[in-house]
C-alpha cells in the first residue's frame, strides 16, 4: 500500500511489470540508447539494476506497471 501526499510526486510507468523491464526502462530514460542493444544485453544486468531500483524506491509494481514515487 502506498501513501502519497501530493500526486505530482508520482509517475505510473505503464507496462513495466518486472525488475528487468524496470531496469530497461531506467537505462533507456538515462539516454544511453546509443549503445547497441546486443552490447547492453551482454554486459548489463537489467534485472539486477531494476531490482535495486525497486528496492530503493518508495513505489512498487501495481496492476498497470510500476508506480514511481519521487
TrEMBL record:
<dbReference type="InterPro" id="IPR009899">
    <property type="entry name" value="ArdA"/>
</dbReference>
<protein>
    <submittedName>
        <fullName>Uncharacterized protein</fullName>
    </submittedName>
</protein>
<dbReference type="Pfam" id="PF07275">
    <property type="entry name" value="ArdA"/>
</dbReference>
<dbReference type="InterPro" id="IPR041893">
    <property type="entry name" value="ArdA_dom3"/>
</dbReference>
Amino acid at each position: 500500500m502506498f501513501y502519497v501526499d501530493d500526486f505530482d510526486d508520482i509517475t505510473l510507468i505503464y507496462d513495466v511489470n518486472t525488475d528487468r523491464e524496470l531496469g530497461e526502462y531506467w537505462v533507456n530514460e538515462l539516454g544511453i540508447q546509443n549503445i547497441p542493444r546486443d552490447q547492453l544485453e551482454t554486459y548489463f544486468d537489467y534485472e539486477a539494476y531494476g531490482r535495486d531500483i525497486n528496492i530503493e524506491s518508495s513505489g512498487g509494481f501495481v496492476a498497470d506497471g510500476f508506480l514511481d514515487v519521487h
